[in-house]
Amino acid sequence: MESPISRTNLNCISLADPDVQKSVALLKQACLDSGFFYVVDHGISQEFMDEVFAQSKKFFGLPHSEKMKLLRDEKNRGYTPMLDEILDPENQVNGDYKEGYYIGVEVPADDPEANRPFYGPNQWPSKEVLPKWREVMEQYHREALRVAKSVARIIALALDLDVDFFDRPEMLGEPIATLRLLHYEGGQKTGKVSNPAKGVYGAGAHSDFGLITLLATDDVVGLQICKDKNAQPQVWEYVAPVKGEFIVNLGDMLERWSNGIFRSTLHRVVLDGRERYSIAYFVEPSHDCVVECLPTCKSESNPPKFPPITCSAYLSQRYKDTHADLNSYNDSKA
């Protein structure tokens, strides 16, 4: 059972505000309250954002057979078809009614680093099919990482850490940063309008895996958050899409780091039948980074709640838990 759904109000943080303490206070309140906030004045032009969305639409507009040539590999690079991902198996009757495309940190195949789980060469559509696609996506990957690092510095201050805590090589100096293009086809094509009562979702309820996520969306509302996952009934609120802004949310790793003080919040996508595009940028630390309780977040009365774990081990398990087995696509890829 669910309560009626309203719209939530989120704090808005300007990366251009010279009053850093104001930004820290706004972010800290958001992280304690919902784990979601808006980021503005991030330095990525609206013209370029429009181009990224235009290129995303061009890919998802290709024939299914063309997209399946780029089916995601064991490194989670490439295309994820409709229903590939199931984020909330207890409540979903099928997988998510969305398709996506993963683009990670580009590492040449002959580089020893490419042997790590989330590193390696990306899969790219051919230049004959989409001439500007790779160039645009690689630029966006760089720009989004710059924004994420700026946000991480404010988070560090909000946790009473040195401002450059997350800039270190083992943190975001060598990150596992993943761009994911998303397309929700809408009821016209799938015949499926989201219906939580029947277990049908654009994206099932989940919390993100890593440190933070930057989300850019079109103007179609769909994202909902649940500030208290333990409430009965759960209360879901829409997050309004705002042109030119990022919706930023905290991931489970930051909740572990902060010993549960900062919130990694349940969210889902519920659509009214309209087509929707969004672009998520997931930011995680390096493979070998040990995620364990921060010194500023524990005390005798509040001991560490989570055991230490490496970033690579944690992410590998989470991806395995939510995606379909690649072997199930053998027939359709042939």
Explain this structure to me?
This protein has 334 residues and is of the alpha+beta class. The protein contains 9 helices and 15 strands. The strands form 3 sheets. An 8-stranded mixed beta sheet has the order 2-3-11-8-13-6-5-4. Strands 1-10-9-12-7 form a 5-stranded mixed beta sheet, with no helix packed on it. Strands 14-15 form a two-stranded antiparallel sheet. β2, α1 and β3 form a beta-alpha-beta unit. The mean pLDDT is 89.
Keywords for this structure?
334 residues; alpha+beta; eight-stranded mixed sheet; five-stranded mixed sheet; 15 strands; 27% helix; globular
Q: How far apart are the termini?
A: 43 Å
Proportion in β-strands: 15-25%
| Fraction of residues in helix | 25-40%
Average predicted local confidence, pLDDT: 89
The class by helix and strand makeup works out as alpha+beta
Shape: globular
Number of strands: 15
Output the radius of gyration: 19 Å
Number of helices: 9
Strand arrangement within the widest β-sheet reads 2-3-11-8-13-6-5-4
Order of helices and strands: EEHEHHEEHHEHEEEEEHEEEEHH
Q: Which runs of at least 5 residues are low in confidence (pLDDT < 50)?
A: none
Task: Let me know the largest β-sheet.
Answer: 8 strands, mixed
